[in-house]
Amino acid sequence: MGLRLLACLFHLPTAVIYGSLSLFVSILHNVFLLYYVDTFVSVYKIDKLSFWIGETVFLIWNSLNDPLFGWLSDRVFLSTQQPGAEISSPEVVLKRLRALSHNGPLFAISFLAFWVAWAHPGLQFLLCLCMYDSFLTMVDLHHNALLADLAVSAKDRTSLNFYCSLFSAIGSLSVFMSYAVWNKEDFFSFRIFCIVLALCSIIGFTLSTQLLRQRFEADGKAKWDQESTLKELYIEKLSVPQDKRITLAEYLQQLSRHRNFLWFVCMNLVQVFHCHFNSNFFPLFLEHLLSDQISVSTGSFLLGVSYIAPHLNNLYFLSLCRRCGVYAVVRGLFFLKLALSVVMLLAGPDQVYLLCIFIASNRVFTEGTCKLLNLVVTDLVDEDLVLNRRKQAASALLFGMVALVTKPGQTFAPLIGTWLLCAYTGYDIFQRNPLSNVMSAQPKLESAAALEPTLRQGCFYLLVFVPITCALLQLLSWSQFSLHGKRLQMVKAQRQSLTQGRAPEIKMI
Prior knowledge:
Elements: H1 2-10, H2 14-43, H3 48-74, H4 89-112, H5 121-150, H6 154-171, H7 173-181, H8 188-230, H9 248-256, H10 259-290, H11 296-324, H12 326-347, H13 352-388, H14 395-406, H15 408-425, H16 441-478, H17 486-500
Helix pairs in contact: 2-5, 2-6, 2-7, 2-8, 3-5, 3-14, 3-15, 4-5, 4-8, 5-13, 5-14, 6-11, 6-13, 7-11, 10-13, 10-14, 10-15, 10-16, 11-12, 11-13, 12-13, 12-16, 13-14, 13-17, 15-16
């Protein structure tokens, strides 16, 4: 039985094994996004100053580590010519897989550091966030870079992304299970649940990366043998001056001239902000807009659906991408987000069923858009290679540079959201009893009663005006993005010709 299972694993398609890596990230990351703020605010009782200091330091580190790790990984690929042997595709893929095999288990271990109080809440908050994000960044960079390194055609990349979405949907089931064990008063069951998730992730990363490494080590050996056979027939070209290694400053200068890259990161900064705004404030919206009108089981269902539906929905979006192109699908999702938000604003906060649908669909479509944008980044990798005639696509580095500009949206989301809510309603999530911030007992009850409708109205306006503003900004920047249609086809054709043009010339016999 065990041997048969191993045989089945060895014969799985590469796309399935690649997609399974998303499962071992999502089972942990969804739980992290949902509970880390609530854990430190409600369980560890972190003070407001420490929270803001931690988020500010996290903002800086979260933005810098992506390009830093990308540069350390891909700087060797930037020059157009390199002395010595050419770097082959299997070698690039193996480098990514080795990084995943090391950083995947470390990412799972760093996830566990959140759920046990081992230091002062402010210090633990800062260290846990930075450590967790470092390993998550390494995993995300190399996993996303493989999307550009394993395939060039839109069809093949869509297939790889399809399995990522499928396994991410399966991983989102951890949100359903976490709701059953989450208890602020008794943390033991939740901690055991997190340990089990982390062990599953460690085993999964180790097994998946090992299977892929064995596959590409065989491919690399076959390619090496073929090149050795052809070495005697290789025509030495006239010596040409070797290009110098490109510095980081020169690479940034090249990016500053990459027009589509600049418009994309402007749009994606808003997208990252909106995705994390939805994640951070989803429980708050449920509590203050729907808690007295829906049952606990309905709230649990909405919470779980909001995490699993984006991945399932993305399977349909990917089929649309094959027919209409990623650009058209993303633009349609922006228009849909704008239309739904305007309808909800006009309907008002008293339409309970419409409010349930909007809260869930707002997160579903926003997260669905995020899942498609990796395909756009891989197209930007192709354009960067063609425009600068690189000898190898610096995919991890470009993903890192995208994150440099867009990752601050992840930190801005809770900061701007809590500030807007406090400015409009006076509600402060850091107060132990925010609805009773008054002097005496009798005025306390009157103040709380007066504040509740204002808080509900404030949550509603926050819920609808944030997506309206985001959609308008995104439509403006996305209209300037030109890497689609004929231009995209031309870029892919040139990348394939550049790749094929590096094959050694053979003597005519």
